[in-house]
Fold:
Amino acid sequence: MSANGFTTAALFLPLLGALVAPALTRGLQEKAAWPLMLFLAAPFLIFASHLPEVAGGAEVTGGFAWAPAMGLDYAWRLDGLGLTFALLISGIGVLIVLYSGGYLKGHVQQGRFFAFILLFSFAMLGVVVSDNLLMLFVYWEMTSIASFLLIGFDHERAASRRGALQALLVTGGGGLALLAGVMTLTVMSGETTLSGLTAKTADVTAHPWAGAALVLVLIGAFTKSAQFPFHFWLPNAMEAPTPVSAFLHSATMVKAGVYLLLRLNPVFGDMDLWQIVLPLFGGVTLVIGAALALKQTDLKLMLAYTTVASLGLITMMTGVGSDVAIEAAALYLIAHALFKGAFFMIAGVIDHETGTRDIRQLSGLRGKMPITFVAALLAACSMAGIPLFAGFMAKEEIYAALTEGGWRALPLLAAIAGNAMMGAIGFAIALLPFLGAQARHAETRP
Structure:
C-alpha cells in the first residue's frame, strides 16, 4: 500500500474502533482503553509522517472515487492547517481515551462511550482533511450527531438531554445554512473542492451572490464555534461527562467553525464584509465570554466561558487577516487546545475525587493531589501567557499582529481585556481549590 493509501486507511481507523469498542469493553472493562487508543495513535503517527513534506510547503493529497456517477470523489488534502488539526484531534484523542478508561471505570455504558468518542474522532478528522465540499459537509453534520450522543450520554438526566438537544438544534441549524452556502459557492464557481474554490477567488468575490454565500458560511461557522449570539449552547453542553468537555468543547469540535474560517480566509479575506464581521463578532464574543466566566463558580462553566472567549479571539484574528494575524490565530489555537484540554481533565479529576466542582467548596487539595496541583499551575501559566509557555508565544504573536503597521485599537483593547480576564480565571482554578485548609465537605476519596 502506498503512503497515501495508508493515510486514507488511517482516516477510517477511528470508525473501525467505534465498531469494536462495545465488544472489546465487555471483555476488558476499563483496560479496553489501551487497545482502543491505538485506533487514534496509529493515525497520529501516520499523519506525523507527512510533517517533513508539509513543513517544506508541499500538500499531500489522496482519496478514491466516492460516487462516480455524480462526479464526487472522497478527496482529502493535508496542508499546514489540515495537518495541524489532524495531529491535534488524533493526539489529544489518544489521551482522552486513556483518561476515559479511569474516569468512567465501572460504568455500565463505558463501551458505548468509547464508541461515541471514536465515532466523533472519525467525523472530526474528516472535516479537517476534506477537500471535497460535500464530503466536508457530511462530516460536519456527523460531528453534530456524535456530539449530541456524547452530551446526552447520561440520558436519564433531564439536564443532559436538554443540553444535547440544544447543541444539536443550534449546530444542526447552522449546518443547514452551511449546506446552502456550499451549494451557492459550487454554483458560483463551478468547483466542488476547496482547492478549486481557492484557485477561483477573484471569480467568487466578484460574483453578485458572494455576500449571500459568505453570510451563510458564517452562520454555519459561528454556530459551531459558539460565536455571539450563538454562544449560549456551549456552557449548557457542560452537562456532558468531563472527557467530552475536554475533547469536543475545548480541543476539537468547537474549533471546527474557526477551522472553516481559516480555511476560507484566502477566498473571502479581502471582502469588506469579512474584515468587518469577524473582528466585530469575534471581539464581542471574546469580551462577553471572559466577563461571564468571572461570574461562574462551577469549574466546568468557568472553563466553558473562557473557551467561548478564546474562540472569539481566534475569530477576531482571522478577520484581521494579515499573515502575522493568521499565524497568531493558528498558534493560539494549538496553545488553547493544550492548556484548556488539560484544565478540563483537571476539573474532572477534582470532581471525581471530591464530588463537587463548586470552587467555593474546594480548598486545601494540594497535599492530597500534588500532581494535579502542578498540572493546574502549568496550565494556568500557559493560559495567562507567562513567558516560556505556549500561551505566551501565542499572545505575543497576537499583540504583534494587532500593532503591526499601526495600532488596531478596538481589537487590541478586546485582546488585552479578554486575556487578562482569562488569565485571572486560570489562576483561580489553579490556586483556590488547592491552597488553604482542606474543606471537610470536599475531602478526597480514599
About this structure: The CA atoms of residues 18 and 118 lie 5 Å apart.
